[in-house]
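1st attempt posting a full record on here, be nice pls
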Amino acid sequence: MILFLLAYLGGVLTIISPCILPVLPFVFARADKPFLRSGLPLLLGMAMTFAAVATLAAVGGGWAVQANAYGRIAALAVLAAFGLLLLFPSLADRATRPLVALGGRLSQSADRADHGASSFLASLLLGVATGLLWAPCAGPVLGLVLTGAALQGASAHTSLLLLAYAAGAATSLALALLVGGKVFAAMKRSIGVGERIRKVLGVAVLVGVAAIALGLDTGLLTRLSLSGTARFEQGLLDRFHPDDAVPSAAMRKGGQLADEGAFPSLAGANEWINSQPLTPASLRGKVVLVDFWTYSCINCLRSLPYVRAWAEKYRDQGLVVIGVHTPEFAFEKDPANVRKAVRDLGIAYPVAIDNDHGIWRAFRNRYWPAHYFIDGKGRVRYHHFGEGDYAQSERVIQRLLAENGSAVGDVGTVNVSADGAGAAAGQRKARSPETYLGYGKALRFASPGGLVRDARHDYAAPASQQRDAWGLAGTWTAGREKASLDAAGGRIVYRFHARDVHLVLGPARSGQRVRFRVTVDGKAPGADHGTDVDPGGNGVVDGQRLYQLIRMQGGTAERTFAIEFLDPGVQAYAFTFG
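the predicted structure (as tokens):
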């Protein structure tokens, strides 16, 4: 229920977000008409269409995105015709092309003063066209909803969350429309003003169509911060739905472990590494630890040394560890990449490749990493989300083994010492947040002009940066989940506060090597270099993985990080910090 409320509030905030500007003319063109027969159906059509399209885009793959692109073209044509007919009413009599004729019928029907169903239907169809074009600024709340839709798959829950977001936006627009309608009605009572208002609205509609066609709704306007809504939304999420402090399962009184249900199916695995396919039935009588991870996730890499140590220490006592590799990025779906990561990370226990999120959904999981502890009777008895509490998790393993009749022997906990990306995180307080470079979840982008979606573009580094802001320089193509460099010499800059700087990178082609150089405050990192960089700041991208670029030796402070790529063809996905 809290997530539905957050989704609704996130939608309400869109009224003060710059990304709503291009569709406002479509909405306010109906402000002088009765709200119940004109404004309300338009907003209903807009909300329902947005929810349907967003759900398909999140779970339907490329075909859904392509279909939506064609729908946007048709909607632009219809609304352009609508704007022309507002500006030049005489065009309605001469409309011969299908889309213009459709726009004429919609405009004429919506303008009727009768109480028939045709006015309602025409406004509803205009709302559908508006919903196809609306691209809200993807703040933290919408980002959380869309990510959940992509990972959990198509369901009534994800569709209702998106509908709640759209309903919030429709609510704020409805209030504005009611107020605007009264103002317009007062103005139209003046002699001659009504026709001028109609023409002004026609011009506004055409300007909105042009802005959307040029991509300003998803580029420049996404970056304009008129109200700090992203910061407010993030505050709501941190207060009511924090991802960094998700709860572990609580024990019952007396220290007893709860029964959280039967061992979910493992049948969703696409492939198994280090093992034949396993099932809950074949594992009956064993204590099982299921670890959801992905190889470019810094939190997973930091917990992995403990999982490996438990697998080795308790193997002979009957513990079976299963890694479930559920990808976040597209390149993590390549089985060859996963097999290489398993070898490089020294994982000897079974790993299920869960490219379709089948096991993820069977466990109703939401986090990387996530650990589920299952007893010898096939019952889930405990879970832990995120890093930390390793001693408690190991005591759960010991207890389940004891319940299963195994002599644990050494009841101490493992002592893990890891280096590189697997080393424990630094001080959490005031650490820079995970930052995605694809426009689907990008925040705090500071280069002039904003991100240009799915098109080659020359970017300039921001002249000055606030903390946790980042930018691009050079020729890049910004995709939904990554930024791709099109010409040598491109840079990424980030104003960070952390001990460690990691960046998920990969070459555009298999076998390609992309040289790079990093600096901190304009200088080579020296002793502060990460494991993938030498003291001079030099390194090579030779595979799709997480690269540790900086490890500050003298504590954390606010600094400017920059990475310059000496060759084209790199793909940059996300920053993480430690």
